[in-house]
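Please fill in the sequence for the structure shown.

STRUCTURE ENCODING:
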């Protein structure tokens, strides 16, 4: 059974929000917003320190229901720089309870409404939302021990767990050691607690600690300073060349462009989305597994981030109509039931055949996983929206790389031809789609998958497929491939359709042995974003955000282990380790 997030329970103690799990209140009875400003903003001297800064990063060890964040966001408004607020929360509130709590603080009404609109489903992992162009919230729904795996440099820390006697894991020397590794030069920390173990844990990991006047009934509080002198960050050149105008390259253009980069896009074809990204439509949905595998975690992060990213773009054609992943046999059905157990129903649920048929609007062949936010998108519309502000050079086939400028290779299987990657084992896969006129079948109302996909009608066509033909370079439509897709339709919807000379499309995609893309640094000034396989729609936006964050020196939107799993050099590193070396 995958790990489930246990939501906080809405309770009050004499009018103050209270945690039954830890037997403690969320903030002082003298006022939550006032405590946030006194202890955390003033304790870290934040209004003075972020003035004139291009970027300021805050890490909070316990998000609670977000009062510290709302107070910080409110104080930051009007600043010219960018605020990255990263927070960990093991027991987040449901959206309904969050609204109830925030209604008690009318001073945050506008900001709270924006937070509510971006509140993610309560599933584990990282959740990034751009709440304003210069305010980015990254939430990690996880135990606080995840701090050891974050990739960031924080200018200020909000140490805000429940009392050490009630929640000791939030105050251990091990955690403080992890936070010290995440501290930027000149970082500060503040907490309302003056417990001896807290002070000693900070001092033991290199912090200079002092007591100051406390808030409310607290006589004292702690502030701490990390003594390394602050260095002026090296600003990136903010110019980049992107090779490839498909889903991967377009997403990189959009994410860098949102940060003010000047991007030049090269595409060897005469127009964008000329290869697999030019398919009529494709499906998007995550993967759920009983053990919440690394692959499942990455698809979850990619899926949820894509939904938020696409919602900010104009003129894309998509529909989060829902997606059904039907079980292929009894064993898979049992696995799906375990995978969905304990997960929030707005993310995934297991449904039997009758319920699946009701979702689909037509009879389906089996039960399976229902992803209510899954759906279809026309990738060409997405690509065009993402490259709108890039400098575009079509029919431009890049043959050599400029080592002095930043280049991102987003050209699928062609990337290694420009820069060989050791031990990559990249393979090309032919995929043929079949386009069925909607009046020739009883079309589903949602995306239905079972070893392939059947889409609901998109501009009059239902898309079936795709085939998976390894190392097959035939770009022509083949009758046997159409028959394979129509056979899949029979397995999914039990509909037998005969077509003469059906329309369709052949495209090629690149895959790696672990089915994960290659995202990250290849060499000095050279990065990769390729090998997205059949999941380009959910990899592209997250991969682009990871790359853009790395190039800017910003906090990563995922934990380090997930970022490392995408490293283009991971296969070479594994080979070195197997041979007894250090990767």
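FILLED IN BY: designer on duty
SEQUENCE:
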């Amino acid at each position: 059974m995958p790990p489930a997030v246990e939501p906080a329970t809405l309770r009050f103690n004499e009018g103050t929000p209270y945690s039954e799990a830890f037997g403690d209140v969320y903030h002082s009875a003298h006022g939550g917003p006032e405590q946030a400003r006194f202890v955390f903003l003033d304790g870290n001297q934040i209004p003075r320190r972020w003035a004139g800064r291009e970027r300021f990063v805050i890490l909070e060890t316990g998000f609670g229901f977000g009062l510290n964040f709302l107070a910080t966001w409110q104080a930051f408004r009007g600043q010219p720089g960018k605020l990255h607020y990263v927070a960990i929360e093991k027991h987040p509130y449901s959206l309904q309870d969050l609204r109830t709590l925030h209604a008690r603080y009318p001073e945050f009404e506008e900001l709270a409404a924006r937070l509510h609109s971006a509140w993610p489903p309560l599933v584990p992992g990282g959740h990034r939302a751009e709440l304003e162009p210069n305010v980015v919230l990254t939430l990690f729904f996880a135990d606080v021990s995840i701090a050891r795996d974050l990739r960031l440099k924080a200018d200020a820390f909000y140490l805000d767990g429940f009392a050490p006697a009630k929640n000791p894991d939030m105050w251990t020397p091990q955690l403080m050691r992890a936070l010290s590794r995440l501290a930027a030069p000149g970082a500060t920390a503040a907490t309302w607690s003056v417990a001896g173990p807290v002070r000693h844990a900070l001092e033991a990991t290199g912090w200079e600690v002092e007591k100051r006047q406390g808030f409310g009934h607290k006589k004292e509080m702690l502030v701490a300073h990390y003594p390394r002198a602050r260095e002026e960050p090296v600003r990136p050149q903010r110019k980049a060349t992107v090779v490839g105008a498909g889903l991967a390259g377009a997403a990189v253009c959009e994410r860098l462009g949102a940060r003010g980069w000047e991007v030049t896009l090269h595409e060897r074809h005469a127009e964008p989305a000329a290869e697999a990204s030019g398919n009529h439509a494709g499906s998007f949905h995550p993967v759920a597994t009983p053990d919440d595998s690394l692959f499942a975690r990455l698809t979850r992060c990619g899926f949820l981030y894509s939904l938020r990213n696409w919602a900010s773009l104009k003129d894309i054609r998509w529909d989060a109509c829902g997606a059904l992943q039907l079980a292929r046999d009894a064993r898979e059905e049992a696995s799906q039931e375990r995978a969905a157990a304990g997960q929030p129903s707005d993310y995934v649920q297991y449904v039997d055949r009758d319920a699946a048929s009701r979702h689909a609007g037509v009879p389906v062949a089996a039960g399976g996983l229902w992803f209510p936010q899954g759906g279809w998108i026309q990738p060409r519309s997405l690509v065009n929206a993402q490259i709108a502000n890039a400098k575009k050079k079509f029919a431009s086939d890049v043959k050599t790389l400029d080592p002095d400028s930043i280049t991102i290779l987003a050209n699928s299987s062609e990337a290694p031809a420009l820069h060989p990657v050791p031990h990559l084992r990249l393979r090309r896969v032919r995929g043929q789609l079949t386009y069925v006129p909607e009046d020739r079948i009883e079309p589903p109302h949602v995306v239905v998958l079972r070893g392939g996909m059947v889409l609901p009608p998109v501009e009059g066509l239902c898309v079936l497929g795709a085939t998976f033909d390894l190392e097959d370079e035939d770009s022509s439509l083949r009758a046997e491939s159409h028959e394979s897709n129509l056979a899949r339709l029979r397995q999914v919807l039990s509909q037998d359709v005969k077509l003469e000379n059906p329309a369709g499309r052949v495209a090629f995609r690149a895959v790696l042995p672990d089915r994960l893309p290659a995202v990250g640094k290849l060499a000095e000034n050279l990065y990769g974003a390729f090998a997205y396989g059949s999941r380009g729609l959910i990899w592209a936006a997250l991969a682009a955000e990871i790359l853009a964050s790395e190039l800017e020196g910003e906090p990563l939107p995922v934990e380090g282990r997930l970022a490392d799993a995408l490293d283009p050099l991971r296969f070479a590193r594994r080979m070195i380790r197997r041979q007894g070396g250090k990767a």
